[in-house]
Amino acid sequence: MGEINIRMSRSQDPHPPRSFFPFGNPFRMKSPKGSCLSPQLLAVLQAFEATLGERLKKLMPKSRDEILCFSWMTLAVKSLCETHNDILTLITDLELPVGEWDDKWIDVYLDVSGKLLDICNAFSSELSRLSQGNLPLKCALHNLESASSKQYIRACSLLDEWKQLVNSRNPRIEKCSSILDNLVGSLDLPKVKNSAKGKVLMQALYGVKVETVFVCSVFTAAFSGSSKKLLELNVADIHLWAPAFKSLQNVVNEEIRVRFSRGKFTVLNELEAVDTFVKELYPAIRGGVETTEMELPVKKTVEELGAAAEKLSQGIDLLVKGVDGFFQAVLTSRHALLTPVRFDKPVNDRPGRNVTQQVA
After folding, report:
1. Which family does this protein fall into (predicted)?
2. What is the CB neighbour count within 10 angstroms for residue 291?
3. Using CA atoms, how far apart are residues 53 and 207, in angstroms rounded to an integer?
4. Residue 337: in which H helix or E strand, if any?
5. Rounded CA separation 127/317 (Å)
6. Stretch 300-326: mean pLDDT, rounded?
7. Which residues contact 74 (CB under 8 A, 6 or more apart)?
8. What CA–CA distance (Å, rounded) separates 21 from 205?
9. Which residues 6+ apart lie within 8 Å of 310 measured at CB?
């Protein structure tokens, strides 16, 4: 009971990836064996899961056009921040100090949170790369303010530079897929010790993991330009948040696959809008024909390109702040959870087990 099957759209490695939380199957708490949950613990868990369910519902786009616009992506990463912060609150409510955790829990927490920080860095790298593309785009628009043939030729060159940049691939994003594979390992491992509080924590952490892997999978697919990077997570119905998650995953993943099947080079709405106007404008100014005044249709396209470029720039800036916020949330949780360990337990007694250095 409670077994979770996770299937992915890409092939598995010959060796199964390390589990996200190898503390046992959190759904064994529903089994008659082991500790029973008190009404108080059950209320804590249900409150956490209900909040997560409502949070996932808020990510459901009102229309497919909202999927993978930068505002939706910013909302998604903000949701992750809130969910990760909720875990700290949950641990406080459970009165389950980290000092009482098994050493392997600490080891795995360091490993997992470290991988999330790597993913954040990769996303920040990609957003920085896209932001750099704004410079040739803005310069091209500036050159198009003139009716000079030479300026038109220069604008074409700058638009070529922009197209080459946005069509290139970031190797750091490509590595995110293998990181995600390591975060979706099987949960069907030895159960946790006979601790009702531990089982509540594990089930809550599973919800955090599912939302995190889903959002990071969507971002990775969007930034990599391939639907093969998408993950499909099958979640047991015993969770209060399961229906909201399944609906969200189905809608978002399906739309991403449809867009890529149409041959689009990107599924990012604002980036696609800029690319559309660039493709429309480029033939009209290529060759640098001398004119005394820009023709009205071309002038309109230039104005639309300028508006689209500004919207793209603003969207990137918002998402940069969102990803940075998620990075800080993960870093804060590492520090908050591991600081008591540094003082309560000798954690540096084995090679590679320096928590102080890892937190830094």
Report:
1. Belongs to the ROH1 family.
2. 13
3. 10
4. helix 296-344
5. 8
6. 95
7. 315, 318, 319, 321, 322
8. 8
9. none
The string of pLDDT tens digits covering residues 135-149 is: 999 999 998 887 677
Q: Give 8's pLDDT tier (boundaries 50, 70, 90).
A: very low
Cα-Cα end-to-end distance for the chain: 40
Read off the tokens for 95: 């009165």
Phi, psi of 146, deg, nearest 5:
-100, 155
Q: CA-to-CA distance for 356 and 335, rounded, in angstroms?
A: 9
CB 205 within 8 A of CB 49: no
Confidence band of 284 (pLDDT split at 50, 70, 90): confident
User: Which class for 305: exposed (0-12), middle (13-18), buried (19 or more C-beta within 10 A)?
Assistant: buried
Strand partners of residue 232: 7
- 10 Å CB burial of residue 45 (0-12, 13-18, 19+) is buried
Helix axes 296-344, 103-132, angle to 10 degrees: 160
Given the structure tokens 């800036």, which residue do they identify? 317
Residue 7 main-chain phi, psi, to 5 deg: -110, 140
Tokens found for residue 23: 């503390």
Q: What is the largest CA-CA distance in the chain?
A: 85
Which pLDDT score is estimated for 188? 41
Paired strand residues for 6: 233
Q: Identity (one letter) of the amino acid at 37?
A: L
Residues 173 and 122 sit within 8 Å (Cβ to Cβ): yes
H and E: helices and strands count for the chain:
12, 2
Residue 37 DSSP SS3: coil
User: What confidence tens digit (pLDDT) does each residue in 183-239 have?
Assistant: 887 544 335 566 788 788 888 888 988 999 999 999 999 998 888 888 888 888 989
